Amino acid sequence: MPASEHEALAKLEPARLPPPLPSVAPEKCGLPGFVAWADEHLFERRSVVGDYELMSAALARGRGQKFSLEDLENELAKRDYIRDAKSRKLTNREALVCEFSLVLDAQNGMRSHAAFNAGYQPAESLSAEQRGAVLRILRSRDFITVFQGAAGVGKTFAVREVVRGLEAAGHPVRVFAPQHQQAADLRRDGLASADTLAKLLAGGRTVRRARCARRS
């Protein structure tokens, strides 16, 4: 250190030094809190998980805290999970209620609405399979329509054509994805308004009942 810096340090008075930063107390939620965090984190996006996934997430959350694997297994056993006897899969009752309500909505909404745009003709550039999917969705009279296909078959191109058909009939369209990267991919592929479901729910806006097409 140069002599000039030594002299500058020697002239400093304690009163001129900044106050020390406040100490941060370690997390004290304990093992039940770690398991509760893992439960919320995993079931936010999935309806069924493995018990080992819950334990892994809880262990990661409680890293550095004092508890054993046996303690963690006992904590999981206390919880009212619904378990598959033939595997290590489980779910919680909140997820089950949500899934059941979706099934009821799908059943009760079958053939109960007008078609979105029955006369729409998809672009000729689409494959026969894509055109068939677009027509099936736009002619659907159901409350929920599921559109699925393997990776790389052109689902996004078909969805983009569905959006055109909906907008041509005057329907407002919103596109949402479970994860940020999926929403970013949709925006990159031409669906500029695509966003995450989390942002929709966290925005404080009322989510009105709407018909939906689910891509998977």
Question: Tags for this entry?
Answer:
216 residues; two-stranded parallel ribbon; 9 helices; mainly alpha
3D structure, described in words:
This protein is mainly alpha-helical and 216 residues long. 46% of the residues lie in helices and 9% in strands. The protein has nine helices and seven strands; from the N terminus they run H-H-E-H-H-E-E-H-H-E-H-E-H-E-H-E. The protein has a three-stranded antiparallel beta sheet with strand order 1-3-2. The chain has a two-stranded parallel sheet with strand order 4-7. A two-stranded parallel ribbon has the order 5-6. A hairpin with a 5-residue loop joins strand 2 and strand 3. The longest helix is centred in the middle third of the chain and has 16 residues, at 93-108. The radius of gyration is 27 Å and the shape is flat. The termini are far apart. Residues 23-27 have low confidence and may be disordered.
